[in-house]
Amino acid sequence: MIRPRTPRGIQLGEFLTTRRRAQSRAALGLPPGTRRSEVGLSREEVATLAGMSVSWYTWLEQGREINASRQVLTAVARVLRLTESEADYVFALAGPGGTSVLPPPDTAPQHLLNLIRALDFPAFILASDWTIVGWNAGYEWLYGPIATLAAEDRNLLRLIYTDARIRELLPNWERDSRSFLAEFRAESGVRLSSERHRELVESLKQENADFRAQWAEHAVGKFTSRERTFVHPAAGELIYEHHRLVPSDAPDLHVVMYAPTVAQ
Hints:
The structure is a single chain. The chain is an alpha+beta fold. The protein has helices at 7-22, 43-50, 54-62, 70-79, 84-94, 110-117, 137-142, 156-162, 164-169, 173-188, 195-207, 209-215, and strands at residues 123-126, 132-135, 226-232, 236-245, 254-260. The chain has a 5-stranded antiparallel β-sheet with strand order 2-1-5-4-3. The longest helix has 16 residues, at 7-22. The radius of gyration is 21 Å and the shape is elongated.
């Protein structure tokens, strides 16, 4: 019986294929491959090193609907030398697919809006597809256009890749955009096959060459608090600590805060 392909399975297969083709052969004690290549494994080599059948691994990369055990997936993650974030991404995509994914909220609860509006530094609220559903005066000062954008354009990922004003605001745009995209993929996980996420990704792939190239890299990375540098049109260079909180009563929303560093 030919096992059907699923959207989550295809997403998983594309990720595994990318990592397999980028794997160092020497790191696994293997000789150069065809054409003396130092990188890239065959499906047969991954299956052998992971202790699974070639057919089973091939089905994984083809996006077929199969029930791979965590033990098998852990072995694949070991062979492909996946990071913890990447392995979690694989486990989520390969898990049971029967649970429906609720659409992201279009608004933030009033108590979260009250919270960020009480802060005297930039803060905003993100839905799971990175739609900005609330912000405070500090964020409007940092990025003025947020108040006048159409609701459908208030998406952080879209703004990063399509708004020239954001590029001017981010002197490290190349690094920051890649970090953001890796976090978006990790956080979205199984949601990437939902209608809102799929439409966002497909539209950006068509509209923006930078997004298209970076998306094809399949980078995955969890958010970590860090320093961020901005160049404000009036205030010049600003350095903030970038933090993100997940409300216990609204886990599908993230509260993002840019807190001034001690030096400021």
